[in-house]
Amino acid sequence: MHSYNFNFIGEKLTALRTGSLFWEEMGILCVSDLHLGKTHRLNRIGAGALPPYENIDTLKRLQEDIHNTNPTCVICLGDSFDDPLAERSLSTNEIASLEVMQKGRDWIWISGNHDPYISCKYGNYLSSFSKSAITFRHIALRGENGEISGHYHPKISVKLSKATVVRACFIADQNKIIMPAYGTYTGGMSVRSDEIKELVDPDAIVMLTGKKIRAIPYSSFF
Amino acid sequence: MFESFETSAQLLIAPTGSGKTLSGFLPTLADLYLNPSEKLHTLYISPLKALASDIKRNLERPIDELKLDISVEDRTGDTKQSTKKKQRVTPPNILLTTPESLALLISYPEAPRIFSNLKRIIVDEIHSITESKRGDQLFLAISNLRKYCLDAKIIGLSATVSDPSLIAGWLAPESDCEIILSDPGLEPNVSILKTSEPPPWAGSGGLYSIPEVIEEIAKHKTTLIFHNTRAQAEIFFHNLWLENNKNLPIAIHHGSLDKEQRRQVEEAMVRGELRAVVCTGSLDLGIDWGSVDLVIQIGAPRQVKRLVQRIGRANHVHSRASKALLIPANRLEVLECFTALDAINENKLDSEIQTHVPLDVICQHLLLIACAGPFKPIDIFNEIRSIAKYKNLSRQEFDQCLDFCITGGYALKKYEQWHRLVQASDGFVKLRDPRVANRLRMNAGTIQDSDTLKVKYKAKQGKSKGSSIGEVEEAFAVSLTPGDTFLIGGKIVKFESLREMIVEVSPKPEKRPKIAVFSGTKFATSTLLCDRILKTLEDKRWDNLPDYLCRWLEQQESYSKLPEPNSLLIETFPRNNLHYTCVYGFAGRNAQQTLGLLLTKRMEELNLNPLGFVANDYTTLVWGLTKVLKPKKLLEGENILRGLDLWLSNNAVMKRTFRSVATVAGLIERNLPGLKKSGRQATFSSDILYDTLLRYDPNHLLLTATKNEAMQGLVDFGRIENMLEKTKNRIDHIDLKRVSPFSAPLLLEAGRIPIHGSAIELMLDTEINSLIADAGLDY
Lengths: 222, 779
Fold this sequence. Notes:
The complex is a heterodimer of chains A (222) and B (779). Chain A is α/β, with parallel strands linked by helices. Chain A has five helices and 17 strands. Chain B is of the alpha/beta class. Classes of the chains: A alpha/beta (222), B alpha/beta (779).
């Protein structure tokens, strides 16, 4: 199963195994926390030169998802760039690949804590974006309904009898969806952590990314 | 005493406990007495912090008694920052340090002044240092500082080894090093402890022997009880106290304990207040505690050499024989213990392992010397090649390391303006931003197997800080869930939380800890011992073996077959709906583990659905969903080699090795001060870096270094090749209806490795379906 369909405040949404979310009716593809240019930022602060391949890898995966879903609008849900200098560090090839993806469709950058601006080289930023009854923003607001957000990089570890598997995941309840981080160089925060527990209801479902997508009740992790 | 003025290097080989360390200092004391000086005269390097402080105590006594005006200080990871700073300005006459601390010392701009008057460099327990990357770290540092003190003499002190010339090569190019062999002393008195209860089938703690061990402690003045891992030491110590009705003063000492706790134990030991110390390798080396009259080794010794050195801890008086007892932890180990006894009696030692040139350590070295000031690459290249081990280091390899330090060494060149090092037009390499120096030093602190986290008691209300108990490996810390109890420093504590790299715990007076493992280094049984075990089985020299062991061997022989030196025994049998294959390679734990990975790789290719494997020093047990009909097919030479490359690139061992290589080389920072603040989701696993490099830059230096290291260390591929060569595809395949006497203990062995192949995806589905069913939901 490469995707998982579920109902969210009356809308049919599809979680893809790659970590992106597709709203077919509106032609919207949503990804969160790309953290493009992370290597650049780490280089700059003297943390050493990590392999500079995370942009290529992230963009390549995004390109595949766009190819498979052919959306009319792509929403990047914040922390798309690691910081303003990182944003300007994209190479010619990377920019070209981004421009190809942007061509012929709407592209919405939502600002995140890493990229809190109103515009960038590659388009304008919005602090949030609403369509129908759904609002897209970077950090979830407590008590908000019909909201899709990112920021927390939710992940989950599942203990099997002879192994532990760690996967980035979506977590969704009746009112909220928190998206997994899409960027290649991103870690995660366990859905068991207090921060995430406080945001979503116990009856939420967790959707694991990976070779295929798998949905599990949130309650089964406690 | 051992002074000779003809050579610039000396290697003194003497058994443990013969007083060789102090003899190394006699010329220093004499010279400083005749020519008092304000400067650093002698640099002493030991592999252990504890050894450095012990030597300090032993040196201070004669200096005080003779009222000599000689300053002695130690400098280790435990030394206060303020003291270290002072030492850089006014170094003592004699500085006692460790390889890690010395590597850091040469990274300061003060280095030329500190070493300018150095007369002697003493490397203690050099046989132990040169066995690991610490040896590389140390000798790279020495190669760098020698230019400040060209006539300094270097002295290596070593326990008995089988090939002294190998070690001499570290000290000076061939023939320039004088080797002095001392009288080996009396034969030690070693036996295997007889216990009322035979050892268990599996396990590694030796707990069954506690009543007898307590009796032995009571019979002797002071006993050292050696364990192979910290976890075992902790569990044993805990259980020893549960049965210590006589309240004998018994303490514990290992490298993960808080330094204050270690110091207290060391001092109590010196004062003669302790009857026994439960310890690990941290007390393995030359600490001179005269009153020890018994050494107990729990668990198979793995190497004869190390066993001999441990035994030497008892009776540091040359005229008396050391007394030691071996306690096999399980039945498999009984055979190994008996074999080791034979080897000791025949004076056979395991041969030295010559390690490859670790490129990651050279990278670290280059980054550190850049912190001291600009350098010319050719000078450093020549310096490094002055060490015998590196005389074949090619300019190309060196340049690759340098390129890694300057640009990251990627095929794709990016972000050049931000590189940590820059090469100026005059050819000098220097730091782009000098403020990065501290960051580099912090990261380069130590070379170790795994990262450790501090364990502290959670602060009580109103108090700002909890007290420190010790350290655990990061991998262990992240496996804990709040409420789990584990052992540390002989106490049971409850895990509360992991906060900013500190494991917070609270005291929990319970009888049994829930989780009791923190992984430690596991040594593989040496080729010498493995070969001798096979020989013992073949020759049927079982007269000395206990009855229960003979029965077990006989059962194996009648139900299946005994392993033989010149063929490879493979058993297959079904159990609980799984199919097992057991390969008796006798190649040591690491190689057997690799064999497990290679076999499962081949099984995956042949659609045999492997699920996992477990290995010990002699055997690999693989299980899967499908029966293996022709095990010979799994082992065919070219197939297994072809699989190796593919397999190597994608397995947990490689990823773990990459993590350590990347940390040593400075790619991954041990402490990421800027990053930790921004929350947990900002740090990501080194596995991601590994996967990315493999995909986009497969020829990168660090992947090469990882492969070199894994092939030799954890992978130990050489021993698999030797085994296949020796058995020349003579495979004895025995298909059994049920588990055999020899393979049964493996079913109980810890450390199972799962195979993340097709089978795991199936199991993940099953697990998730059951989770969903349990929750009464239907998705």
